Amino acid sequence: MSILIRSHGGRARGSMPIAGVSREQARREPAGAAALSLLDAGFLYLDRPDAPLQIGAVLCVDGTDLHDATLALLAERLRELPRFRQLPRRVPLSAGYPRWEPAADFDPADHVFAWAVPASEGDPAACRQLRRLLADPLPARRPLWDLHLFESASTRSTALLFRAHHCMLDGLGGLACLDQLLDRDPDAPRVEVPPEAATGPDSAWERLTDALAQRAQGRRNAVVRAARALRSPAHAGRAAARAWRTARGTSGWLRQRVPEQRWNRRLGHDRQLATASLPLDRLREIRRARGCSFNDVLLCVIGGGLSRYLMRQGGAGAPVALQALVPVSRRAHAEPGGTPGNRIAALRVSVPVDGVDEPDRLARIHQTTRPLMARRAWEAGEDWLALLDLLPPAVVAPLARVARVGRIANLIVTSVPGPGEKRSFCGRPVHEIRPVVPIYHDLGLGVAALSYAGQLSLTLHADAQLVPDLDRLAADVTDAGVALYHATLGGAGEEAR
C-alpha cells in the first residue's frame, strides 16, 4: 500500500501565490466568469461517485523528491491557466448552466500530493493507490483537478498522475494544458506578463441575471437562424439535408446491436491500467501502404488485440464485432488546443473481432469509417444536443442527474497527438506519457492512445474485477500491431516491436 508522505507541503494556506509569469508564446484565456456549455455541464451532471468522469495522464519521470519543485512550477505556470483556479458554481433556480468563477483562497498546495511506493509494487505507474485514485471523485470544494506524485526509492523514479474533471477539458485541451507544465528546454527564458486584477465570485443575483440574459440571447439567435432558413432556399436545403443525416445517423445507432461483454457492467471501486507501446513510424507506414487513416490503423490494432483476447477467453462464443465509441475533435484549426471546455463529438464504429487476418480487419474498418466520415455522422449527436439545449436548464439538470447511460458501446477508443520531442518536468526527463480515458457504468473498458517522441502509447483502463487480466489484453494489442506491420510491409516481428 502506498503511503501519503506530503500534501500542503507543510505550508500555510495561501503561501504559494500565483506569480505573474508566462511562458513564451503561451495562449491565455479570459479569467472572468463563463457559463459551461451543455456538453460541459452534461459531464458534470452525469458524474457519479462510483464512476467519476475525469480525464488523466500518467507521466513517468526520472528521480524523486519533486514535491516542492512541483509547487514552485505550479505557482509559476498556473498564471497562464485561469480555468485551473476556478470552480463551477450553480446558478440560482437552475436558470442556466453552472458558471466558472474564481475559487476563494486558491492554493496550488491543496492539489499536490506525494506518495511513497513500496519496493514490492515495482513500477510506480502501476501501483495500487494510483489505480484506486482513478475511481475516486475529485473534491467538489476546490478546482476540479490534482497532481499525485508516486515516488519509488527502489527505482529512483516518479509516476505523476494528473487528474482533471471532464467538464473542464477534453483530451486535446487537457494535453495542451499539461504541456504547459513541461519543457523542451528547461533553461529557456520566460516572458514577464503584468498580473491580472484579482476578481472575486459573482453574487447569486449576478449569476441569475447573467444566465437569464444568455438564455434570452440564445433563443433570439435560434429565431434568427430559423427565419434565415425560411427566407433562403439554400439555407432551407442545407437544414433539410442535415435533418435527414441526423435521422439516418440516429437510426443507425438504434439498429446496431451492442453485444454485452464482461466489462459492460456496473463498475466497482478498483481500476486496472495496462500499457502497450508501438513505434509511431511503423504505424504511419501501414497507413500510407493501406491508404487509410491513422485512426483506422489504431482501431485495427485494438480490434486484433481484442480478437486474440476473446478467442482465448470464449473461443467459438466470441462476437463477430464490437462497437467502439470514438471521440471526434470539433476544434477549429485556428482554435488553441488549450482552450478550455469540450469541443468533441463522437462516432460509433463497428470493430471486427472475429478470426480474420489483420489486413482484412483493417479493410473492413476502413469500409466502415469512410462513409461515416463522408456523411459527417457525428453531426447527429451534435444536433440532438442542440435540441436538448432548447430545454430550460432547470429541466435538463435533474434529468441528466438521474439518467442511466446504458450500454451505448462496448468500449471507448480515443487518440490524441502528443509532443514529437522529449519533454522534461521540473528539470527531470519525461520518459513516457500514458493517457487515461474515463470509463463508466456499462462502458467499462477504455483505450487512450497518445504519440510521444516517436512512440504510440496505448493505455488500457478497466475495472480490476471485471478485467483482472488487462496486462494480457495489452500484450495481445502489441502482438496485433506487430502482425499488421509484418503482413503489410514484411518487417520482422521483433524489429516491428
Describe the structure in your own words.
The chain is of the alpha+beta class. It has 3 domains: about 200 residues, Chloramphenicol Acetyltransferase; about 45 residues; about 220 residues, Nonribosomal peptide synthetase, condensation domain (Chloramphenicol Acetyltransferase, 2-Layer Sandwich), CATH 3.30.559. It is about 35% helix and about 25% strand. The strands form 4 sheets. Strands 1-7-8-9-4-16-15 form a 7-stranded mixed beta sheet, with helices on one face. A 6-stranded mixed beta sheet has the order 11-18-17-14-12-13, with helices on both faces. It has a 3-stranded antiparallel beta sheet with strand order 3-6-5, with no helix packed on it. Strand 15 and strand 16 form a beta hairpin. The longest helix is centred in the middle third of the chain and has 28 residues. It is globular and about 60 Å long. The C terminus is likely disordered.
Q: Could you report the average pLDDT, rounded to the nearest whole number?
A: 84
Tell me the distance between the termini. Answer: 33 Å
Main β-sheet description:
7 strands, mixed
Strand arrangement in the largest pleated sheet: 1-7-8-9-4-16-15
Query: What Rg, in angstroms, do the CA atoms define?
Result: 23 Å
Number of helices: 13
- What is the percent of helical residues? 25-40%
Work out the number of β strands: 18
- What structural class should be given to the helix and strand makeup? alpha+beta
Which oligomeric form is depicted? single chain
Q: In percent terms, what proportion of residues is strand?
A: 15-25%
- Domain unit count: 3
- The name of the CATH architecture of the largest domain is 2-Layer Sandwich
CATH-assigned fold name of the largest domain: Chloramphenicol Acetyltransferase
Cα shape: globular
CATH superfamily of the largest domain: Nonribosomal peptide synthetase, condensation domain
